[in-house]
Fold this protein.
Amino acid sequence: MATLNEISENIAFKLGDQFNTTLQESIKDTILNYRAKFIRDDLDRNFLSDIHFSQVGTVQFKEVNILTEFGADYSAITAICPDVLEQDKYQVLKSIHPIPVPVRLKSAGTSLYNFVGSTDGRKRFVYTTLDKFYYYRHLSYNLHTVYYVVLNKHLYIVNNLTECDINKTLKIANVLIKGVFENPADFYNACETSDKFADDLEFPIGRDMLMQISNNILRGEYPVKAKDGQTVNIKPDDND
């Protein structure tokens, strides 16, 4: 499959302006918009395989304090709740890079990601919100469930515990993520899959959908430039 740079250059060539980089960047943005729309319509209506569109990779994490992560005044917090001095209780894992935004698929469920879990694909983590997690963590049958939240485009593992971890400390590890993302380049950047520029990597799209997107762009999104000696017919305004 072609890269996004190759696709946009090919469409720009058909528009008669192959070396116009501004046009190519505009075409890329249009392709992403069409792709997200067509994927959502196609998968929600037909429940087809997402193999042509999905991406799989690992996300790296760092340890942060959830109390101060979003700019809270730590001194004010400790004055109200003295127990926050036990900082280990509030340590969570945060993805080093922003995670890609998934296409809004009805069939994907609440989190919209196909999979978030252990790197071997055996253990699925459960999506939640912070307020719900503080309730769920006290349920006995959830003791070994790993929960994650998504805030400000970052993935947080709020209780990355191992079953044999007596002290319930955090364990820094990679997490496997799979999904159909609005911008495939964001996935490549988040997972650091290559040293290449993201638009020079494979663009996940079915050939039939790519043809439809290309035709839509060529037929209506952009005006076709007239070549030397060529006449462009313009339809008269019916109101004249």
